[in-house]
Amino acid sequence: MTQNNADNPEKNNVIRVQIKKKPETTAALYSEKDVRTIVDEFVTSWIKGDIIIRFPTANELGKQNPLNFTFPKNPSVNAELKIKEHYIDLILICAGIKPASNEEQQKAISEVFKMILMFRSANRIENKNILKDLEKRVTELEKTQQHQLKLVEQITAYLFKPKKTKQQTKS
Q: What pLDDT is stored for residue 105 in this prediction?
């Protein structure tokens, strides 16, 4: 005995359920776009000379290596150069000068961001021109204010200037 679907109304009632995935929420402070912007601004400032990075020197690296007396050539000098070369290599990838895939570019941006954090935490970054920039801005503001004061005085003098009457103009 087979029952037809028409005979059994319970089988005809099909309920379709569509499950929507919730968008993943992250607790990250900075989005990829934010990190890219920070790295972009940092690298631009570094290239312009507005920021100075004090890379670890060979002496500093040599102090961390207890075996440095056993090597005839000081490996810390090579380590110093490798750190700087690695940084420059990452910058070239970020800038698009050195060919790299999108994934390699994103990795380079993340690495530069990590280096910024490490250098900042080690107090190895200093902003060279912040005082000069601040002085320049204050000077420009003072000039603008003086110019505006002159304009206000001219407008005030024009508005409150006594008007000549017809009799004064005839004589």
A: 93
Residue 26 is predicted with a pLDDT of: 66
Determine the Cα–Cα distance for residues 92 and 156; give it in Å rounded to an integer.
Answer: 58
Tokens at residue 1, please?
A: 């005995």
Task: Provide Rg for the chain, Cα atoms.
Answer: 35
Which amino acid does the sequence have at 97? I
Answer whether 134's CB lies under 8 Å from 112's CB: no
Residues 131 and 43: their CA atoms lie apart, in Å, by 20
Q: Is the pTM of this model over 0.90?
A: no
CA-nearest of 100, 112, 105 to 42 is 112
152 vs 102: CA distance, rounded Å: 56
